[in-house]
Description:
Layout: E1 4-6, H1 10-20, H2 26-44, E2 50-56, E3 61-67, E4 72-78, H3 85-91, E5 96-97, E6 99-104, E7 111-117, E8 126-130, E9 133-134, H4 138-149, E10 155-162, H5 164-173, E11 178-184, E12 187-188, E13 194-195, H6 201-206
Parallel strand pairs: 1-11, 4-5, 4-6, 4-8, 8-10, 9-10, 10-11
Antiparallel strand pairs: 2-3, 6-7, 12-13
Helix pairs in contact: 1-2, 2-3
Amino acid sequence: MSLLHVINHPMVQHKLTIMRDKNTGSKDFRELLNEISLLMGYEVTRDIPLEDVEIETPICKMTAREVSGRKLAIVPILRAGLGMVEGLHTLVPVAKVGHIGLYRNEETHEPVEYYCKLPEDIQDRLVIVTDPMLATGGSACDAISMLKKKGCRNIRLMCLVSVPEGIKKVQNEHPDVDIYTAAVDDCLNENAYIVPGLGDAGDRIFGTK
Length: 209
């Protein structure tokens, strides 16, 4: 079974509270999501292996440690997942970025694929899938399945707010994919929105509603 990591750092929780407020505008919402993504990125990449290297400081030679050639890729689920890319890229500037486009059918609430563009060597990379909301889990599961069809075997899911329904679906369908989230909310409403949630993340990021 995959592991669920709830990142409850005080600054993450503080920023998330401001994002939840319906009076927070798109500019502040985007900036806060970027900041939270950077903070969460520390936990998502915590166990990346290191190796010893020989360097010379202005004082003397020494053995220091650096990331051990681990290639990373950030793959946002469009469109809301884009809001989490900049923060992660700030932490790992050399990471490549792919894109998976899915939208939710308003009647069935099921995800529909419309775009997929990934780095050629995606199968050799640690892939961090980003989506602010883990609601039904449909989009996340479909995105992960698409990545596995491309040969990916090292995938992590990073979301801002989740609910037990979505977590259970991902863990059942992809027990090898760990989930990183800043909050586990109560449930989904009749329209498959997270309660209490923060509304439609894509609309709030891009000011489309």
